[in-house]
């Protein structure tokens, strides 16, 4: 646990170091020992760190609850967005894509807020949306050059030399077998 003389700021640095090192269990123990003198903002920040630790440990239900506790009710929209994105990640990991999409949509609508500018919130929204979309597609089919539905292979029908036919006639390369 955090020494009694430790400040919330110093303890946060120690917790962040442990999280970055992947030592979620150790960081979680520290998260649950908020030093005296902590403000409401400190408590929200520590709840977020606790949620990250729980998510890293695969304790998704507890992590989602901690992310909810980390949501500021007013003020910093970026902190709110990070907490809701955490809940969305947990929902995806639990296999609840519908709940994840609802949470993600809430964040996307707020991602242009001035508090969010200069953060990676919009990037994380795009990444999470791509992840959800990939899950909707299902597992990747094995590569098979004889399977016409395998998207990694070019279609075997048609003349590959004429794939530029959709271009206007004046842009067809010289010396080609154009129209």
Quaternary organisation of the protein chains: single chain
How many distinct beta strands?
0
Kindly report the average pLDDT value. 81
Overall shape: it is globular
SS-derived structural category = mainly alpha
Largest β-sheet summary? none
Tell me the helix content. 40-55%
Helix count equals 7
Q: Spans of 5+ residues with little confidence (pLDDT < 50)?
A: 1-5
Q: What's the helix-strand series? A: HHHHHHH
Strand content: under 5%
Radius of gyration: 24 Å
How do you describe this structure in short?
The protein is mainly α. It is 54% helix and 0% strand.
What does this 3D model show about the protein?
With 179 residues, this protein is an all-alpha fold. It contains seven helices and no strands. It has helices at 8-20, 24-31, 40-56, 60-70, 77-93, 97-110, 121-137. Helix 5 runs parallel beside helix 7 (121-137) and helix 6 packs antiparallel against helix 7.
